[in-house]
Amino acid sequence: MDVVRFYSNIIKRNMDKPEKINKLINFGLTTAYYYVSIFKDKRGPNSLHYLTKYCIKSIKDSLENPQNSAWVNIFSPCEFLIALDIKPLFIEAYSSFMSGFFIEDYLIDTAESRGIANTLCSYHKTFIGANELKILKKPEFMLTTSSICDANVPTFRYLSKKQNVPLYIIDVPYKYSKEAVAYVKNQLIEMVENLEEVFKRKLDLDKLREVVKIENKTRTLINKYLNYLKEKTLLVPMTFEMYMLFASHIFIGSKEMLKFYEMLLDDIKNAPPRSGKSIFFVHLLPIFEKNFQDYFNFSNKFHIAGSDLNFDYLDEIDEKDPFRGIAEKLILNTFNGEMERKVTRIRELIEKIKPDGIIQFCHLGCKQSIGGTFIIKDLATKMGIPFLYLDGDCVDKRNNQVGQNRTRLEAFLEML
Amino acid sequence: MVGYVCKYTPVEIIEAFGEKPVRIESGCKSYERAEALLHTNTCSFVKGVLENIIENNIEEVILTSCCDSIKRLYDVLKERLKFIYILDLPRKKDTFAVDVFYKEIIKFIDAYKAFKNKGFAIENFLKILEDKSSFRKMQEPSESIAILGARLKDDVVEKIKNSCSVNIINFTCTGEDRIFNIESEDNLLKGYAASLLNLTPCMRMAEDRSKFFNKDFKGIIYNTIKFCDYYSYEYAEMKSQFNIPFLKIETDYTDSNSGQILTRIAAFFEATDIKKMEQKKAKKGYFAGIDSGSTSTNVVIIDENKNIISYSIIPTGPKALESAFKAFEIALNNAGIKEKDITSIVATGYGRVSIPFADKMVTEITCHGKGAFFIDNRVRTVIDIGGQDSKVIRLDESGNVIDFVMNDKCSAGTGRFLEVMSRTLGISINEMAKVHAEVKENITITSMCTVFAESEVISLIAQNKDQRDIIHALNKSVASKAVSLVDRIGRKGKYMMTGGVAKNQGVVSAIESKLGEKLVIPAEPQIIGALGAALIAFEGTNG
């Protein structure tokens, strides 16, 4: 019998015992951590191995140390948390892991039965479900941005009220202006004051500058890595691109993620020249969708040429005034503001990477991404690159129409 | 004419330009043109707005960055209209936020000046603000029903107002009173920006709304819109907090679903005594209830001692009225009586409005509650799964309806779902109801949607799965939908299951295993609504 299924059945049978589930999930993560540490997947590069370990460990650490942890969304400016030595738990990643454990359906049904909309993004529903069932230990703080995803503010407000934990909402304006920068900078200052009060420690500004310095160095490596994607290919699974969100977002600025990108750069330099077809993904990759797993994981024939979500900010941050610099980064994220910004970035990436096709997997419930599908399609048409959009769900496997998707995906790949 | 959507839009600025601001509504028959530009799964409200912009040839539009879907609407419209502007609307209201919004308003004024090639007179603007702020309406919460949640269409609000005698306060985006702080004339526009940010916050704002609504209303109607998820959080928080009547409705902003909503609202008023049922003097004789459902039309006739003397069940044809006549005639024949012997008739079900010979119309929710309690007074929860909708009704110790939920506008988990699947499997609906023993493989149908579930069944057939196992999986799927409805109002036994699907043993046992309790199944589960209607006919004349 499939070990993961066996494990998920045990969890599902004990859902009325939150303490036990909490322990079972921590046990699952610990086992996964030791498993990937001992049995390195030889099909993938060293950087994949390093990153996989890091991601599992980071989730495990924040769950095991709730007294030193903050729940955040993927766009939260975690540089402050890194500088204050606070462990972030990013809710989208937690939900993804729960889907990996095959218990997302139970958590989603729980959230929906409490009244949460069934059309809400399943990353959020899964986390809310886990919170409703009390299998998550209360963190000390919550932090969210308003940008890019509508669900952030209401989800975090709901969680913070339920857990009675302080929340800071960073409202990121849609347009860039000097007033907008001042507005965000002021909020970042306020947020740090709140963090200092809750965690009873002071932010060392030099430490923050150091984090930003590492972040800038990391981005230089990301830009270098991008330049290799046109000629070289790494054989990786889809999870790699998604794990990379830990490195390009939440933990950017940490020494470990700098090391990851150093390793990645080495790996790609030594990788064989590109062969087969290369597919660029818009937004998310459906790591649990069977067809995609079959076609893309460690495939010689069809490669993953990256996702724009990992390249949503490629500039330097002002090291002298990190509050201002980070405020600018939040506003100027290519997923924030007019679609034109995102289109421009995708165009730049396409020109650099020269993929053979573009796929947008329309994650059910993600309004910001779904709403722009036809605009990306127009861009692809203008650039003369085949484009496919498929509907489904990156977390709730019940929403993936495997049979239908297979025909469409295969037809598209045949087209290339 | 300048079209707008959001209540935070500076409409007074548009007026000061001498232009007419028009709030774009979203009601439409289909999304044909909108779906050519926006993905099908985009919020139905936004698709409706786009459809209306195209339909009415609106050339000037001002939007705010209020939600992801509106932002994408802007992106789609950007190159298609003569003038379009999106205002960056902050979620907070501190001085920095006011600065951002104030500068945005100035930029909008400049853009509109340039487009229209005309000036902006601050005196006109001041006069408009003064006029608007001169009258304020105060309404007493304890005497009112509050409409909260996502924006509700004006016509539905009007219909709600007309269907009851109490005061209705609309707190959704369509009902805001605009009151401005114009004390500081030296910087009128900045004060105006601050006043706009100080309107009662909608759910996208950072501020906690609970302090605005923790009031002593007579009842709350809570609206949500399909694909607009903001308000479901507040609903989830609020529903358990209040001891006052609380009704959730879900609209998708098409014209077609206002009938279903009004049924729910009418049932809510009936259940909460907000609209008292008129009672007539006692009369003797026979009493009939007609349940004109989407799939079957059922009639029950009772005598003055509440004995069921006959009933009929026929499929509802294309004309509800003809089926009602026919079913009524059959029931009269079975009872051996004539129409003149009937003292009073109550109609219920979707088609209740089209039965002219009925004396009264009552919603099927009240009727099912009534009928179920009459059959077994230990029943506290009625699970009714009919042809096209399913509902769960909560009863108190006296048999009054105190809460209920209905399925969304989708056939998942209804009789229709099973009907489609029986066709896919190539067996009759009766055969499907029979097979329920011996499960070899515990298959799970993952798709909730009928259409997708159908393709899933087709692939199971292709994989040569045992038909009985597929049927078992389908029954489980209907059961899980029903139990999730039960969970929305909380579990409380005893449970009775009514409606045609109650005849399906497989579904019944799947629900029983999920609830961990035996269901009460009436001898003829399809006539419970009609029975309730007949009982109401009796009580209306004898009570």
Strand content of chain B: 15-25%
Please, what is the average pLDDT of chain B? 84
Distance between the termini of chain A: 38 Å
The description of the largest β-sheet of chain A is: 4 strands, parallel
| E-strand count of chain B | 18
Strand content of chain A: 5-15%
Secondary-structure element pattern of chain A, one letter each: HHHEHEHHHEHEHHHHEHEHHEHHEH
Shape of chain B: elongated
Q: Helices and strands of chain A: which structural class?
A: alpha/beta
Low-confidence stretches of chain A: none
Number of helices of chain A: 18
Radius of gyration of chain B: 27 Å
Give structural notes.
The complex is a heterodimer of chains A (416) and B (543). Chain A is of the alpha/beta class and 416 residues long. Chain A is 56% helix and 10% strand. In chain A, the strands form 2 sheets. Chain A has a 4-stranded parallel sheet, with helices on both faces. In chain A, helix 5 crosses helix 7 and helix 10 runs parallel beside helix 12. Chain B has 543 residues and is α/β, with parallel strands linked by helices. A 5-stranded mixed sheet of chain B has the order 11-10-9-12-13. Chain B has a 5-stranded mixed sheet with strand order 16-15-14-17-18. In chain B, helix 14 packs antiparallel against helix 17. Classes of the chains: A alpha/beta (416), B alpha/beta (543). At the A-B interface, helix 6, helix 8, helix 9, helix 16 and helix 17 of A face helix 4, helix 5, helix 10, helix 16 and helix 17 of B.
